[in-house]
Amino acid sequence: MHCVDAELVFQFNRPMLDLGPYNAHGPFLNEGVELARLAFVEDTEYPRVHGGLLRSTRQRIAAAAGRSQCVVAHPADLAVPDRTSSWELLCACCDETDALMEPRRSNLLWLLYRLTFFELAVSFAKQLLPSAGKAERPFLLCIIGLCNYAMSVDGSAHLDTAPFADAYAEATPGSWASVEASYFLSQTNARTVGDVNSLQHWLSRHRQAVETAEVDEHDRAKLWSRYYRIHALLPQLEGRHEEMVQDMDLAEHWLAEMSSATMPHRAELRALRYACNESRIKEALVTGDVALAEERARRAIAFEPNDGRLFLHLGQVLIETGDIAAAVHAYSTAALLTPWGAEVALFMMGQCYEAMEEYWPALHCYRSSATIDPLSVSARDAAIRLAAALGMDEEGAAAPSKDSAGPGVDGPRAAKHQRYAGALGE
Length: 426
Fold this sequence. Notes:
Distance between the termini: 30 Å
Structural class: mainly alpha
Oligomer: single chain
Mean pLDDT: 90
Number of helices: 21
Shape: globular
């Protein structure tokens, strides 16, 4: 039921695993890594595309691709036979950080961040700070803030927004650092802290940074699209859904103004379009328009057919519509395409199978989910509960007869996996 093609996962995700060849059909997260690699190898500047790549995500992808050897604490820990030429250059530059000139030094730190070498990037950035010039310091502080934020999401560090605040204070108005620092301070106050007053403060600063940024038409459209999408969180938190929708309309309007003329432009457009589509799906669910949510989910999948996370959203929407069988198919596709979301997809498949009174597939899905994520209390509890209802012992060790009675008409039904009154997705 859950069989992942390891070679396909590897080929789709090589940049984030070993800086190998980029496959345009893979998840868009790889495009940001590929641009970081190109900037580093060519010693030039490319757009710095965010993507929310976490260490746990990279670990899941490496395991699913059969390349767990790519999960190392330091680039030099990767065995020489497994290194690409770009990885060899990465190792060499990590040994001589102080001697590197710009832009390679900044590109090295950005690449380490995109490859989830967070502690190493923070260590290098802190080493460079005392001697860094006025123009470089805000960038280094942003790198420290971004790495800390990613580690806090993964649970390996406590959230510390001070580096972003310091970066904004030291940055030239309208610079990359002022834009990024104010953006992430807005995001963390909305999604993590839930502080409306601080959110308003940083949204104002972020708007000022966007307004003063000296950029071309493509970048201006990108910055305004991001601004209105993050600004939509304010009316959402305050329950002003009409204003939330207006903000998201503006975010989508500016998205349409972005260029797709070059590969870097397309990478930025693809990342922003994914985020905007995801937010609009959740927005429709917040406002109770399930039909619109399904339409948007299917439109998003048309743009990104190989990103399983969108099938997770579609599955949720289909549960809301009552089409449980279709939801099973959506979650099954999600489990096959997205190794780092397979445990959620399998748990939800179990919920759906229970709703359809197909208890053996449900039990298999719960167990598979718990195997992928042993810390998942929900999947383990569901497996134990259903195993007991099927005549197995509490741990499911006994092999019951296929004729065992199921939980019956009073058994559990498909439950909503999450409430969408929370944040519009990043």
